[in-house]
Structure formats: C-alpha cells, structure tokens
Amino acid sequence: MSISEIFGRARAEGRAVLVGCMPAGFPTVDDSIASMIAMHEAGCDVIEVELPYSDPVMDGPVIQKASDIALAGGVRTRDTLRIIEAVASAGATVVLMTYWNPIEKYGVNAFARDLAATGATGMITPDLIPDEAQEWIAASDEHRIDRTFLVSPSSTDERIAMTVANCRGFVYATALMGVTGARTTVSRQAPDLVDRVRHANPEMPVGVGLGVGNGAQAAEVASFADGVIVGSALIRCVLEAPDRASGLSRLRALSTELAEGVRKV
C-alpha cells in the first residue's frame, strides 16, 4: 500500500498515521529486520528505515549511536536495500530516510530504480532541499517513488509552499529546532507549523517528527497532525535492553502504546 493510500485510509478512520523509525542493520541485519516486522505487527502503519550514515546532522544521540553500531557491523547501502525488501515482503509499508551523499555516490537514477524494486514506496531526504533536487525529482517520477522533503518552524511561508509543491505522499514537519530525540513535552511550535503547511496545501498529509516518546504524546500530536513520526524512543527499546528478547518485547509494547495513542483522536 502506498503512503498516500495509508494516509487516506487513516483519514477515513478519523485518526493519524503512526510512522516508526529504525536504522537498517542495528544491531545486525537480521535483528533490524525482526525489529521492523515487530513494529509493523504491533501497529506501526509505516516503517521508516534509516540508512546508517557517518555524519547524521539531524539525528540526536540515540539514532547516532544505533547508526554507529550498524556501520561498525559492516552495514552498507546494499544491505539496507535487502532489509527494506524483507520488511516490505512481510506486508509493511516502507519508506527510506537517508542523507543525500550515499544516494549521489550510488547514482541517483540507479538508486531510485533499485529502491523501487525493493517494494519501498517513498524516500525522506532531510538534507536535500527541492531547489537542489532536480535529479531526484526526475528519478522519483520515473520510478514512482513518493518523495518527502522537510519544513521547520523557521521556514518562511514561501519556502513551505515551494517544499509542499514538490512533495508526494506527505511532508515532514520537524516540530522543533534541533536534533531528533524523545522529549518530555511536545513542541508548542508544532500545531502552528502544521497549520501553515495546510494553508499551502490542505490536501497534503503532514507528518510531525522530533520529540514523541509515549502514547500520550502520540495522541497529542495526532490531534493536530496527519502523521506521528517516532524514532529515538523505539530505538532506545533495543539499545538499552539487556538482551535481544527483552528488546523485542519492549519494542512491541511501545509500538502498541503509540498505535493506541494515534487512534485516540
């Protein structure tokens, strides 16, 4: 099912979409596949697979540590594609989140082709702006991949309108300035940013990320956004667990709690 279809179904049900993030290959390739399938089975509508990168400028310490573990284990771009294929084959709707350098190194059109072949439906590019994305826009159009760019509280109305016009599937609204990571409260800037995106295009779904760590926060964000994006809190379930079984159990429990949260609208 495509991202647009997922958001459409959730809207018809009167709820938000839950997007759960996990780095590819953390702590191993097989473990990351098991984690993502567990998240899917526990209620995550979309699995956001993060391609591990050595210089993740937007990511906070939890995602950075998990990505470092994956990279130290030898995980590379080809492994990430294999992981996506396995998770998509299990029935999950999958999007990739990646910084731009690995894609440019791989070859933009070749990567779009190979990503589409895995069954992924979209890609989030946090450090690529539409102004510099002509090659990616063309490749994603050719291979029918939804593309998600980011907007932030500092974005001008003109920048938001231009960014939304170049998105397909949904737009990613970073709810606060700074790096990712679960926080004790939801940013007060988030509702205003969502309103500004909807003013630019009422039909474009808005996913909000950066800060959600529990079901109550997920419900709060779901009350004003179309999608709730959770990364660090889910990754911490695995990162801080004493063993693999405990990590999977915690991951399922939090995914279930978050899924219940986005449905309390």
Please give a structural write-up.
The protein is of the alpha/beta class. The protein has twelve helices and nine strands. Helix 7 links the parallel strand 4 and strand 5. It starts with a helix and ends with a helix. Residues 177-184 have low confidence and may be disordered.
Unreliable residue stretches: 177-184
Query: What separation lies between the terminal Cα atoms?
Result: 23 Å
Identify the strand order in the major beta sheet. Answer: 5-4-3-2-1-9-8-7-6
Q: Please tally the β strands and state the result.
A: 9
Instruction: Give the helix/strand class.
Output: alpha/beta
Provide the gyration radius in Å: 17 Å
The general outline is globular
Number of helices: 12
Question: What is the residue-averaged pLDDT?
Answer: 92
What kind of sheet is the major sheet? 9 strands, parallel
Q: Provide the β-strand percentage band.
A: 5-15%
The arrangement of helices and strands along the chain is HEHEHHEHHEHEEHEHEHEHH
> Percent range for helical residues?
40-55%
